[in-house]
Amino acid sequence: MLFFHTGFAQKTASPVTTAKWPNNLPWWKPNNLRVIQTNLPAYEAATLNPDSLLQDLLDCSANTLLINAGGIMAFYPTQLDFQYTNPYMKPNTLAEVIRKCHQHGIRVIVRFDFSRVHESIFKAHPDWCYISPKGERIINTDMYVVSINAPYVQDRAFKIIGEVIDQFPVDGIFLNMPGYQVNNPYEGKYHGIDQNEYDKKAFAAYSNGLALPTAENKADPVFQKYLAFKKATVEDWSKRLHELVKSKNSQIAICTYMDKYVDIIRHESQSNTSLPYWPYTASDNVGNAVNSFPDHVISNASIQQISFQSRYNAVEPEEVGIRLYENIANGSGLDISLMGDLRGYEDERNFGVVKKIYAHHKKYEPYFGKYKSVAKVAVVAPGAWPSGEPMQEYRGIQLMLKEAHIPFDIIEDAQLANQAEKVKSYQLLILPEITYLSADAIRTLKEASQQGTNLIATNRTLFDSPETLLELFGAKIVNKDHDGAGFYLNPDQKTVFKRFQKQKMLFWKFNLGLYDLKGADQTFLPVLAKGRPGPPEIIGGHDPTGYFAMGVKNHPKSKAVILPVNLGRLYYMHGYEQHKNILLDAIDSVFPEATHLVTTNAPERVEVILQEYTRNVPANLTKKTTDGQILHLVNLTGFSGNTYFEPLPVYDLTFRVKSAFKPSKVFSMVTEKPIPFTWKDGFVEFKLGKLGAFEGLVMDK
């Protein structure tokens, strides 16, 4: 392969300059990662040049490399007969890459993937591999998906990791595709719950003899037991891995997509598989992880490829820029995953964006990575990787808040009980179709409500706990799955629905739950019947049904609002502001201060993220107080709904930011110039003459 390369100018190598952190501090703890992953196809091992790779990392201001090592295939001379060796592998390449990176202060995390084995391993050990309820294998060319409870994962994987750690001075290990497999993601095909004999035996032992379920049905108690079994077995494996790695070297970071026994939680901003596109993917991912797992370092990877079927084509540079800016604004470092080496790359359009933003992060490194949220509102996420209708409801609620410039945190539903004190500190908690909560999570919600946290729940939230639904919201389900197409809502009480002075009927579609709200203290939004949709001569008949789309229950110190409708999904899919205004009016009625943290004339497509920060330097390692606030602005005006263009410059922006201190100065990270400001009655006010793609407005104490 010839090395034609236009993305990076050749420069004289120079060390990455970083602050001197204590030697006993785990190297990843400063939370200043600038990761580049070269996700190497086998054939690139033949041409990978350690010197050119190092130079590209330096030109990008990267301080961490993530590169292939083993699992599916070994990129080093393995001595283990149960690990397939990459036939293009050069014996000294991995060692040279690590040595040269270390000489220039760049950490190296090595990648393992134990989700598949080569067909030669499968033929020797077919009992190690996945088998579907129909008796099918999941196969990608000559690679077979394995079973997590079979000997390859339970034993041989540890030997492979141990061999690499013993041979190479790695700084971390990254585990790709951990856990149970039910899909062939490279072909978009669902296969079902693994029926391997080892899985059957392990589940029977865990469940006192239950048979392994064959269908994923959340209403099935056996499947709920299976979910608990999966969680327990994955955590047990992770615990044993943690013990192995840390017994060899406590300074080796463990990085993967889970949280237990992991040092760096990795997430991914991937391209959208369907419309509407979601431009807030990095804010969503990082916001969820940093608040759900505050003791972890988060690294959200911008995935370069458009899809598994389109590996060699990258997403648009403007989208990558938004992802990376959102990463650092929300508390992650920078992370980009490339399909192969940077030299001879098939789509280099993003390289300039990566180089620019990584350099920005390096320049202002002390201002990133050590944040404290100021948000008084939190949105509960339906898991770490939401999908389907719950995802649409969840994203729609986020979109409403983002466009209204209301700061909010995100907490994963499964972490409510683990973050109980944080949950109770919010003034408003929004639950978008949050179901199947644990008893501890429900207890946390009740205690938060008792202590003063207002609640807003949408669609089918808590349908599986009717006693909680009645206690918190005064609601009983009559029909939770009622098609709302053709129905209307009447915003008749204008003292609450102040944004609807010129509307009497709001159209509906998707779910419109029919709930008995007699246990609520107030009801709003009468539901009007379908009536006659046409022809025009006979339309009408939209009479009150006796049901309401909103109920409010008063508690001694808080209010709880139930909106048993697909409010978020409707806005996410169709974007009519009237549906956003329902939520905004509801928020104003229970917690009007939500809009007071940041007041601005910035367009809705300017993302506003406010953080308290402590300078991220060794001297502040144990410092508890903050050094000021940063108002991050991400310009999404170039996002058209299905295409990313250059953002439009926005002029003459005004900001009023709540601040308990009078800043000593306010300055722009982009222009590096001071910004005039006033401070009065606990608010800082200032103007920004021009916003480009991104801005960081620092308010120092």
From TrEMBL:
One of its GO terms (molecular function) is hydrolase activity, acting on glycosyl bonds. Its EC number is 3.2.1.-. Keywords: Glycosidase, Hydrolase. It comes from the Bacteria. The keyword Iron does not apply. The keyword Cytoplasm does not apply. It holds the Pfam family GHL6. This is Alpha-amylase family protein. It comes from Larkinella insperata.
